[in-house]
């Protein structure tokens, strides 16, 4: 029996068998374009605009939440190096990914970080896309389900409060002095 599921996106939660935690993270979508093929990038004003372009993505990823349920997506890439390679070779116009995923992977893989920071890759925030919350889901069948969900939520809410205090402190700090010539 599965007692706890982590990284459950808000849209995929089935509250019937689970107690669902507060969101502990929010992910924001971006689209990435090859400057080699589109030097000025692509202007996307709405999710509907995505249907005008050839998209590629990672194997196993779904794009239904972007309104692309029946839109073909070349999802044969098995890693980000292959995905960016498809983009630069002109096999697609763009790919979609969460900004926080790109940032996290860039932090742990320097070569991938260089690839995403390359002058040949343009990344822009995807308009009209709501952030996706990530949650813990606790099986209602677990003997300790109520206690676990209370503890998890207490931790999440405490972490948010601490983060808010840190952000507020940073805003109050004086600006660093200008660099001397």
Mean pLDDT: 87
Q: Number of helical segments?
A: 4
Order of helices and strands: EEEEEEHEHHEEH
Helix content: 25-40%
Radius of gyration: 20 Å
Residue windows where pLDDT falls under 50 for at least 5 positions: none
What overall form do the CA principal axes indicate? elongated
Largest sheet: 5 strands, mixed
Q: How are the strands of the biggest sheet laid out side by side?
A: 6-5-7-4-8
What's the total count of β strands?
9
Strand content: 15-25%
Instruction: Give the N-to-C terminal Cα separation.
Output: 65 Å
Structural class by SSE content: alpha+beta
Q: What descriptive keywords fit this protein?
A:
single chain; alpha+beta; 25% strand; 4 helices; 4-stranded antiparallel sheet; 5-stranded mixed sheet; 181 residues
